[in-house]
Specification:
Layout: E1 5-10, E2 14-19, E3 23-29, E4 32-35, E5 41-44, H1 46-49, E6 59-62, E7 65-66, E8 69-70, H2 73-91, E9 98-103, H3 109-121, E10 127-131, H4 132-139, E11 150-155, E12 160-166, E13 169-176, H5 180-195, E14 197-198, H6 201-210, E15 222-229, E16 235-241, H7 242-265, H8 269-278, E17 280-283, H9 292-300, E18 304-306, H10 313-322, H11 325-333
Parallel strand pairs: 1-9, 9-10, 11-17, 17-18
Antiparallel strand pairs: 1-2, 2-3, 4-5, 4-6, 7-8, 11-12, 12-13, 14-15, 15-16
Helix pairs in contact: 2-3, 4-10, 5-6, 5-7, 7-9
């Protein structure tokens, strides 16, 4: 029996767990399938995600995290416990590990308490919270501990965090509840209004990954999708193109652009000069939206780069921070 330090990217769309010395050991959707009669979890992660939109009446597939914070405390606890049991089976038995969990920059003290309590109840001994853009920047390979400006835009499932960092801390930041899940909803609503066709979240996500672009004319592809006709009630197949999906996402994408501009406007001029040299780094699953880097570069007038494996940046960042967990613990106590 032994104890290990664990880093958790508790995301609205996915949960990634990093174990010190082993790397990322779990990457699963933040979905739980619940039996409505008993309130017990029947499946978590990938297995539960496959059930989204396909369950009978007594089973419901729930995302217990919304906009980067806990929406359902009990189900989040059940989900975390199931994930910890799974990694225990593979990696040996953990005895009350110390946990480092990431949360959005504008998270309230009540929301912080909920995250901490859910982690402790699911088996954590000591829980540390860190701001997500800071961890994402470290995971993307940025040296944020120098006296120079680094800008990161972390686009997750529920929130987009924009931050300028220097000397190991956040100088200016902005957090908005517009990210990957909003893109899916935009696509879903667009198909419903234009084609009178009802599609599910998974189909919307397939469209986003398959043909969507944020940059006008950035992509010219088409995808065949199936759904339920709102008029006849029968199944129907249609074809959608990149250009119309770009139009559907335009409003939400511009909200991210505006948040980035707002952060740049509040940034001290010396740090702004550093950002022109170093560029802006995009992290999180939303960074994979085609043409988003191109659009941001054009709008912000600075170079914009997508991090390597953007979805894993936060988890990798927690891994680096775990190496210095004793220092963090001492700093919190002093």
């Amino acid at each position: 029996m032994f104890s290990k330090d664990i880093g958790i990217d508790l995301g609205t769309a996915n949960v990634l767990i990093y174990v010190k010395g082993k790397g990322i050991v779990l990457n699963e959707p933040s979905v739980v399938a619940i039996d409505k009669t008993t309130g017990k979890a029947l499946a978590v992660g990938e297995e539960a995600y496959r059930m989204v939109g396909r369950t009978p009446g007594n089973i419901v597939a729930i995302r217990p995290l919304k906009d980067g914070v806990i929406a359902d405390f009990d189900i989040t606890e059940q989900m975390l416990r199931a994930f910890f049991n799974r990694i225990n089976d593979i990696n040996g038995l953990f005895v009350k590990p110390r946990m480092l969990i990431c949360c959005p920059t504008n998270v309230t003290s009540v929301e912080q308490k909920a995250i901490r309590e859910a982690a402790e109840k699911s088996g954590g001994k000591k829980v540390f919270l860190e701001e997500e853009p800071k961890i994402a920047a470290i995971g993307a390979g940025m040296d944020i501990f120098q006296p120079s400006g680094n800008m990161v835009i972390d686009i997750g499932g529920g929130t987009t965090d924009v931050a300028v960092l220097s000397m190991g801390d956040i100088v200016t930041s902005e957090s908005i509840k517009v990210a990957g899940d909003r893109f899916d909803q935009d696509i879903l609503q667009f198909i419903k209004h234009k084609y009178k066709l009802l599609i599910g979240e998974r189909t919307a996500e397939n469209i986003k990954m398959g043909v969507a672009t944020a940059f006008p004319g950035g992509r010219n592809e088409e995808i065949e999708i199936r759904g339920r006709d709102l008029v006849s009630g029968l199944p129907r197949t249609i074809t959608v193109e990149s250009a119309e999906i770009q139009e559907a996402l335009k409003e939400s994408v511009m909200l991210i652009v505006d948040a980035a501009k707002a952060v740049l406007e509040k940034t001290p001029p010396e740090l702004s000069a550093d950002i022109i040299d170093r560029g802006v780094i995009l992290t999180g699953g939303g960074a994979l939206l085609h043409g988003l880097d191109q659009l941001l570069a054009e709008e912000l007038k600075v170079p914009v780069l997508v991090a390597e494996e953007p979805m894993n940046c936060v988890a990798r960042g927690t891994g680096i921070m775990l190496e210095h967990l004793d220092k963090i613990a001492k700093r919190r106590l002093s």
